[in-house]
């Protein structure tokens, strides 16, 4: 006659005391926030850039991309592009937030969609986006890896367009 041995682990976790439960509830209550009560994006650019991707989906997609492309995507999503005059004007690094070519507020969306200063680069970007079968809108461009690479190419030459600070020794 064969006997099989079954071992059952009966280790019990100690229950939390009433005091510990109260502490746990008090200190974690602030962490549980209804997502609908959170404020939305601060800028219009960030609002347009949000798209329908969750932050987890965006992080997974961005982790596959090169560092420069991730950086540009993050700048666009946050609405803070360091060479845009509107961004530099906030920190008093520029005299005016207006673009010198089109006299509109120099922002990310202005550079991509409207500014005449970047017409040729914008036309090339538009062709690449349409070639991917996407609509030429931020939410679609920010949710596609190849479109993000195209956006990186568009902004790559614009990273050092501002003049050096006055009084620099170079």
Describe the structure.
This protein has 170 residues and is mainly alpha-helical. It has a domain at 44-156. It has 9 helices and no strands. It has helices spanning 18-28, 44-49, 55-63, 67-78, 85-90, 108-114, 119-131, 138-141, 145-156. Helix 4 (67-78) crosses helix 9 and helix 7 (119-131) packs antiparallel against helix 9. The longest helix has 13 residues, at 119-131. The chain is elongated, with a radius of gyration of 25 Å. The chain starts with 17 loop residues before the first helix and ends in a 14-residue tail after the last helix. Residues 31-41 have low confidence and may be disordered.
Q: Radius of gyration in whole Å, from Cα?
A: 25 Å
N-to-C order of helices and strands = HHHHHHHHH
Class computed from helices, strands and strand pairing: mainly alpha
Largest sheet: none
- Low-pLDDT segments, ≥5 res: 31-41
Question: What is the average per-residue confidence, as pLDDT, rounded to a whole number?
Answer: 76
- Measured by DSSP, the beta-strand proportion falls in under 5%
């Amino acid at each position: 006659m064969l006997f099989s041995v079954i071992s059952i682990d009966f280790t019990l976790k100690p229950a939390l005391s009433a005091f510990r439960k109260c502490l746990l509830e008090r200190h974690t209550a602030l962490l549980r926030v209804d997502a609908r009560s959170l404020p939305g994006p601060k800028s219009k650019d960030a609002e347009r850039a949000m798209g329908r991707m969750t932050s987890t989906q965006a992080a997974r997609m961005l982790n596959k991309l090169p560092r420069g492309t991730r950086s540009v995507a993050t700048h666009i999503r946050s609405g803070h592009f360091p060479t845009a005059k509107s961004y530099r004007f906030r920190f008093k690094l520029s005299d005016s937030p207006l673009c010198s070519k089109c006299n509109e507020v120099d922002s990310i969306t202005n550079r991509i969609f409207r500014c005449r200063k970047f017409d040729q680069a914008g036309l090339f970007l538009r062709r690449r986006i349409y070639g991917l079968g996407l609509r030429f809108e931020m939410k679609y461009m920010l949710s596609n890896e190849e479109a993000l690479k195209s956006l990186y190419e568009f902004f790559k030459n614009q990273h050092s367009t501002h003049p050096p600070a006055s009084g620099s020794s170079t």
